[in-house]
Amino acid sequence: MQAPGAYRQPPCRTGGQGWFARATLCKAGNVSDGRLSRNTPDAIPASMPRRNSLASRRLHACNRAVEGRMWLGPEESRSMSATDIQTLSSQAPEPRTREKLEGGHPLVMESEFEPAGDQPTAIAELVEGVTAGEQNQVLLGATGTGKTYTMAKVIEATQRPAIVLAPNKTLAAQLYGEFKGFFPSNAVEYFVSYYDYYQPEAYVPRSDTYIEKEAQINEQIDRMRHSATRALLERDDVIIVASVSCIYGIGSVETYGAMTQDLRAGRECDPRKVIADLVTQQYRRNDQAFRRGTFRVRGDVIELWPAHLEDRAWRLSFFGEELEDITEFDPLTGERTDKFEQIRVYANSHYVTPRPTLQQAVKGIQEELKIRLSQLVDEGRLLEAQRLEQRTNFDLEMIEATGSCNGIENYSRYLTGRAPGEPPPTLFEFIPDRAIVFADESHVSVPQIGGMYRGDFRRKFTLAEHGFRLPSCTDNRPLKFEEWDIMRPQSVFVSATPQSWELEQTGGVFVEQVIRPTGLIDPEVQIRPVEMQVDDLLDEVRKVAANGYRTLVTTLTKRMAEDLTEYLHEQGIRVRYMHSDIDTLERIEILRDLRLGAFDVLVGINLLREGLDIPECGLVAILDADKEGFLRSETSLIQTIGRAARNADGRVIMYADHVTGSMERALKETERRRAKQLSYNEAHGITPETIRKNVADVLEGLYKGDTDTARITAQVDKPMVGANLQAHLEGLRDKMRKAAENLEFEEAARLRDEINRLETVELAVADDPLARQSQVELAVEDSRAAQGRSSAGKAGQRGGNVRRRKRKSR
User: Fold this and answer.
1) What's the pTM value of the predicted model, to 2 decimals?
2) Which strand (E) or helix (H) includes residue 654?
3) Residue 556: burial class (beta carbons within 10 Å; 0-12, 13-18, 19+)
4) 9-51, pLDDT tens digit by residue?
5) Half-sphere exposure at residue 638, Cβ-oriented, CA atoms within 13 angstroms
6) Where are the beta strands (DSSP E) in 625-704?
7) E strands of 574-616, at which residues?
8) What is the pLDDT of residues 725-747, one digit of tens each?
9) Residue 299's closest CA among 313, 280, 269, 320?
10) How far apart are CA 593 and CA 616, in angstroms?
C-alpha cells in the first residue's frame, strides 16, 4: 500500500542499475533517417498510452531506459563498469522514492476572512469532487467573487500539492502574491519563463535572412525556477504558480534528481570530491565575487551559494576528511542564521548532463549528421549540406570541450534519451500524481497550450530544411495539447466564461460562484449609438473623474487607441493608452499609476480583460461594440464588463447601432447573474460596498534594488541642507540641467527627485512648523506615489516601447 503523498515508483526492467539506467544508458533513442515530414506530427506516439495520471508516463520513461541500451551495444554495455558510469562521487537514489528532507509540513491557510456568498458551496463541491477522484471540474466564478480564495481553501482542505496555471506573467505575479499571503509558512513558488528578452533562432527563405538567437535571462526568475523544482522533490506542501510556458522543455527529472549531493554532518567526506562534484553540477568556483551559483574554498571550509537561495548560503566546515559542521549564513554580513544536520545540493542548471551522457549524445548526433548530409548531397543541395556540416561540427567540438554550446537545446533528444516525436521533459514530470492543476482563466490558458506547438514546429522545420539545424531539433518543443491532456493530474478549470472544451470534459456540469462576499452586483449595461460615441465618452469621462473614479476604454485597433488618447489629451483629460507594443513591466506600471490617480482614463484593446483588479474603476466604455469578432465576442464582452464589478457605482456603456448575437448573449448572462445577486443581497440584508484595496507596488524590488537595507550594518551620515533652501534648490536645478545637457539622464533624474522631495518637505513644514519627522516623511512618500513612474502610453508616443526601439536601431 502506497503511503499518502509518496511518489509512485513505476515498474522498471533495468535490473536495478539506479539512475544510470534511467539517465545515462537512456540516450538518443532511435536516430531518425534524417527525413522531415512536411505534415505537422500531431499524433501521439503509439507507445504512449492514454491515462488520467502520471503513472503510465513514468512507465514509458522506464521502458525508454531499456530501449536506450541499443546505443551502447551489447559488448560495450557489458564492459562498462560502475566506475566508468559514475559522474558524482556517490550514487544518488531514485529522486521520487528517496526521503524528502523538508517533508511532513501541512498546508495551513491564513486569512482574516471566512467563506461567504457562494464560496462555502463551491469549496465543498470542489473538495468532494477531488476526494472522489474526478479528473475534471469547472469553477464558473464571476469577476470579484474570490476565486483565488476558493482555490486556496480547496488546497488546504485536500492537503495536496497544487500547480496554478496563469495565461501571462502579469496575472501569474498577482496570483503568486495572493497565494504567498494565504500560505506564508508553506512553499509557494513561482515558475515562469526566465527570459527578459527572447528572440528565437529563425530563417526567412523569401529574403534569405537568418536571425540568430538572442536572449537575456532574468537571474531572479531563474532562482525561483530552481526553488520551485527543488521544492517539488523535497517538500509535500508545495504550491507552484506557473505561466503556460511551463509546457516548454526543461531537464529530465531523472537526471536533475540524480545529479545531487547528500551531505551529513559528522560523516566522513573528502572535500576534494565535494569540490569536484560541485564542478560537475555546474557550480563555478569564484573566491572573489561570491554570488548565486558559485562556491569558494577557504582552507578547510567550503562556502556554497545554492541555485535556489536568494540571500543565504551554506558553509561546510571540514576536519581532515570529516564534515564537522553545516551552517547557513548571510553572504552580505557573514552572520550565521541556521544550522543543519543534512543538506541536499541540487545542480546549478536544469539541463546539467553527466559526462557519459554527453559522450553518447555526441555519437548519436554524429550518426544523424552523416545520414542527413548524405540525403542533402543526393538531392544536390550542396550549400545546405556544407552549412549543416560546419555548424554541427562546431557545436560538437564545443560540447566535447566545455559540456555545452550555443543552442544546445536543439540536441535535447539525445541529451534526454527521448525517442523521435516523444514528449519533452517539462515541469509536469516533476509534479506528483496526487497534485491538483488549477487552470486560472481557462478560456485563455487552455487555448494557449494548444497553440504553442504549431508555431514552434514551423519555425524549426524551416531551419532544418535549409541546413541550419538537424531534423532532430524539432524534438526541442513545447508539449502538444494532446500530450498535456494525458500528462495532467486532476484538474480544476477556473473562469468566468468557461469554453466548450472544459465543459465537455465535465459533461456540462460546473460549480457556480457568482455571489460576491462584498455584496457587489454585476454593473448595469447601457447601449448608446455609435455616431457620437467619442463626444459622449468625453462627457462621461469628465463626470467619472469628478467623482474620483477611473475609466477604462476599449477600442478595436492600436491606431484607434493612440488617436483617441491624442484627442482626449487635447481636451484636457489625463489619459494613457496600453497595447501589446508596450513592455510587460511598463504595463504593470501603467496599471499602478492608474490606481494611484496619476491619470484618469486608460485606453486599451485586449489587455483590459482578465485579471485586472481595479476597484477604482467607475466606468467601462466599449467602443464599436457591434463589430462582431474576437474582440467583441461573448467571452470578451463578459470579461470586459466584469472590470466594473469591483465598484458599487460601476457602470458599462456599449456604443452600438444594433445588438449583435454576442452582445445579446453577454447581456443575458449579465442580467442572470445580477438577478441572482440582488435576490441574495435582499434575502440577507446586504448593502454592496466598493472594495477597498491598497495599491501594492509589484516592482518595489526593482526600484529599491536587490539589497535588503535592514541587513546593512554600516551607518552613513545624511548631508545637511544649508540655511538658504531656495539657493540650494536653484543650485540643484543648475546641476540637473547640466547633467541633462551631458546626456547623464540617470543623474538628472536623481537630482529631479531630490528637488521634488525638498519642495515637499518645505510645504509640509510650512503648513505645520511643529510637524513630526514621521509626518514629513509620510508627506514625501505620498507625493512620490501620486506622480506615476511609467512614461509609456502617453499622448504623442506612437507604438509604445517596441516601435521606439526599432526607430532607435535605425
Assistant:
1) 0.73
2) strand 651-655
3) middle
4) 333 333 333 332 333 333 333 334 443 433 434 444 444 433 3
5) 28
6) 651-655
7) 575-578, 601-604
8) 777 788 888 888 888 777 777 78
9) 320
10) 12
